[in-house]
Amino acid sequence: MEIIDTDMTAGINAPKTSPEEVVRQVLEGIEQGKEEILVDETGRNVKASLSSASPAYLTRAH
Q: Superkingdom, according to UniProt (predicted)?
């Protein structure tokens, strides 16, 4: 998951997802009966790469 924009992450200079967007997507996923809810592109990319030869969580960020 990308960083969620909160007081705790205020000093981090990186793309952030708003708390409102996280809540919106989670509630939408619950309403649709989803068992898994991925609220940003980072999470979706990691999930998609899990069964690949080089999973995203094992690669170094540049």
A: Bacteria
DSSP-assigned states of every residue in the chain: -PEE-SGGGTT--S-EE-HHHHHHHHHHHHHTT-S----SHHHHHHHHHTTSSS-GGGSPP-
CA dihedral sign, ordered 25, 27, 33, 35: positive
Q: Which two tokens stand for residue 44?
A: 């979706």
Per the CB < 8 A criterion, the answer to whether 39 and 21 are in contact is yes
Host domain of residue 52: 3-58
- How many independent structural domains does the chain possess? 1
Classified as helix, coil or strand, 16 is strand
